[in-house]
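Problem 12. The chain below contains 148 residues. Write out its predicted structure in token notation.
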Amino acid sequence: MKRLILLILLFSSSAALFAQQPTDEELKKKGPYLRFEPSEINLGSIATNEVTDDMGNVEIEFYNDGVQPLILNQVSGCCGTRINDWTKKPIAPGQKGVIKIWFRVNPHPHRISRTITVQSNAINGSSKKVAVLGEVVIPTSENEIQLP
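Solution.
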């Protein structure tokens, strides 16, 4: 009987916690709201013979969908990713900013997987991540048969 009562209490308290989560639309009305567009940067497939020095130059756009100014406190990248610049002034509601990054793309087959972490005053999370993905592949000739 004690187990049943404990189980009912646990279930009802966890249901109450989940019911109180504000929606994105409610959060947007309370403060600055950070949104990346697109939410993930996909560079696609790059042939090894087409790799250039500037392929790792990427601009990531972000928006303030909230009602108060958005301030990026810190922007950092994973190993080998350099943060060249980002919009440091407060981003007014409805406006956008840019983060400029660079990383080396080597001309040999490999997957590209970089993560940019943004610390801000956003109400939808003080720390947000955006991924930069892609793949460097060996080019195929037209006479070569591709097997699935």
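Discussion. The helical segments are 2-19, 24-28. Students who got a different answer should revisit the alignment rule from Section 12.3.
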